[in-house]
Amino acid sequence: MTRRKFIAGNWKMNGSVGQVDAFGRALVEAAPSLDCDLAVCVPFVYVERLARALESTHVAAGAQDLSSEVDPGAFTGEINGSMLAECGARYVVVGHSERREMFGETDDIVVAKAEAAIAAGLTPIVCIGESLEQREADETENVLARQIGALTRGCERRTLEAMVLAYEPIWAIGTGRSATPEQAQSVHAFVRSQIANWDATIADSLPILYGGSVKPDNASALFAGADVDGALVGGASLKADSFVDIARAVI
Ligand SMILES: O=C(CO)COP(=O)(O)O
Q1: Is 82 assigned to a binding site?
Q2: What ipTM score was computed for the predicted complex, to two decimals?
Q3: Which domains, ranges and CATH numbers included, belong to the chain?
C-alpha cells in the first residue's frame, strides 16, 4: 500500500496573530505546488484564524490538545473537540511528550483524548516515544510496545483506523539532534509490526510520522525510510519557508 506523505506542524506555545496571518499568506501561495497532506497545529486561540486563512488550500488547521470530556459542562479552562471542529480544526495532537511529562498525561488519558477527538470528527495525531535514559537502557521497544498496547487495548477500532501516529524520541525534540534515518526507519518498522500483530490491515494504512529536529536539510533522508510517512515538525514549522521546504522534500 502506498501511503501519502503527511507533514504536520506543531507550533507549541509560540506564535502571534501577525505570525498566523503571514504563515497563512505564504501557504496560500505555496500550497498548490506541494504534493502531500499538510496540517499546522497552533495554540487554541489561533485555530479559527488559521483555518480561515487556509480555507482555499489543502492545508488543514489543527490544535495541540483537547479535553478528554466530550460533552459541555463545568470543566473550567477546558476545550472540547466539538469546539475545535467548529473553529475549523481537522487535526489535534494528542499525548505529546511535553503533555505526558509536564502535565501528567497517562496512557489512559491519551486513549480518552484520542477517543474524544474521533467523537468530534477530528483526526488525532497520537505521539509516542522514549526518553534518552530509556534509549540508553535499551528500553525503546518496551516503552513503545507499552504505549502502543495502551492504544490497541483502549481505543475503538474506528479510532485506530482513523488516527495518525507520531514517533517522537524525546531526546530528539528541540535538541537539533534528530534520529538518524536508519534509527527512525527501524523504530517505525517496529511500531508498524506492533500494530500489525493486532491488525495487519490497519497497520498497512496507518500513517506514522517522525518528529524530533526535522529540518529542511534532513527531511528527505528521513522520508526515504519505507515506514516513515512524513513528519511532525516543531521549531521548523514556525516559519512558512522552512515548513514549505520540508514539504518539498517529499519525493
Ligand atoms: O515536538 C516536536 C513536534 O511535536 C518536535 O519539535 P522540534 O521539531 O522542534 O524538535
Answers
A1: no
A2: 0.99
A3: 6-248 (3.20.20.70)
- The pLDDT tens digits for 87-111 are 999 999 999 999 999 999 999 999 9
Residue minimizing CA distance to atom 6 of ligand 1: 234
Distance 175 CA to ligand 1 centre (A): 9
State the closest ligand 1 atom to the C-alpha of 232, by its place in the atom list counted from 1.
Answer: 3
Rg (CA), the chain: 17
Q: Please tell me the distance from the alpha carbon of residue 117 to that of residue 129, in angstroms, as a whole number.
A: 21
Residue numbers annotated as active site: 96, 168
Residue 159 is predicted with a pLDDT of 98
Residue 96 Cβ contacting ligand 1 at under 6 Å: yes
Query: Which cell goes with 36?
Result: 502531500
Q: pLDDT at residue 195 above 90?
A: yes
Find out whether the beta carbon of 7 lies less than 6 Å from any atom of ligand 1: no
Measured N-to-C along each axis, helices 140-154 and 181-198 cross at an angle, to the nearest 10 degrees, of: 40
> For the whole model, what pTM was predicted?
0.98
The C-alpha angle 14, 22, 89, rounded to 5 degrees, equals 65
